[in-house]
Amino acid sequence: MSSESSVEHPFTVYTEAEIVERLPYWFGEDMDALEVNLSDSTNGKRIQVPGRGRYCDHIDVVDVVNSTRATTAGEIDWMCPVCGSECTQTEDIIVDELLLNIISELDEEDPTESVRSINLKIDGTWTHVSGDAAERLPMRRKKRSRLTLDEARAVFSGEPIEKTSVEVVDSSSSDEGHVIDLDSD
User: Among 42, 85, 120, 182, who pairs with 55 as Cys (CB 3.0-4.6 Å)?
Assistant: First the structure.
């Protein structure tokens, strides 16, 4: 698969291997596959350049070209619409090469953009989302809560975060959220 995008951008690209390495963190211990939405929330079309902020702690992506505006060379004023983390430099926006390649493959086989979500497995493999609601996988999103800059840096440097729980919303249930104790065995 090729990660060549026809869209020019100044952002940092994480390779497929780097993204697959992070999947267990984003999925959590109890999930081996999740549904990932590939639609741009601003225009409803398939995302062209999937990414997230360097300090985001979620699998969800946005179309980073459509959602960012440079203020001066190398500087941006961007807040992630999923988690609220902020980025001020273009290199702090991370393009997800794994999803970029999946989208490129989808663009070739589904030019009408009827496929809007995929089931992504923890090993980086994926399948189309089934139209059968009973077979759909959950879409797990962390509630909007900001990590401090130090906590966000710790996530991607491999250091443990000092928080003992995080609230997670499972969109397949009607519950407000579940608190997961990160210290439990």
Answer: 85
Cβ-contact 92, 55 below 8 angstroms: yes
- Domain assignments of the chain as residue spans, ordered by start: 12-139
Contact 143, 60 (CB under 8 A): no
CB count within 10 Å of CB 106 equals: 20
Render each residue's pLDDT in the chain as its tens digit; 185 residues.
445 556 788 899 999 999 999 998 888 778 888 889 999 877 888 999 999 999 998 899 999 988 877 666 788 888 998 889 999 999 999 999 999 999 999 999 888 888 889 999 999 999 988 666 665 665 554 444 445 566 666 666 666 555 444 444 444 444 444 444 444 44
| 116/128 Cα distance (integer angstroms) | 9
Starting at the edge strand found earlier in the chain, the sheet holding 62-63 runs 12-14, 93-96, 50-53, 62-63
Compute the distance between CA of residue 86 and CA of residue 109 in angstroms, rounded to an integer.
35
DSSP string, 158-183: TPPPS--EEEEEETTSSSS-EEEETT
Q: What are phi and psi of 61, to 5 degrees?
A: -120, 160
Rounded to two decimals, the pTM is 0.69
Burial class (CB in 10 A: 0-12, 13-18, 19+), 180: middle
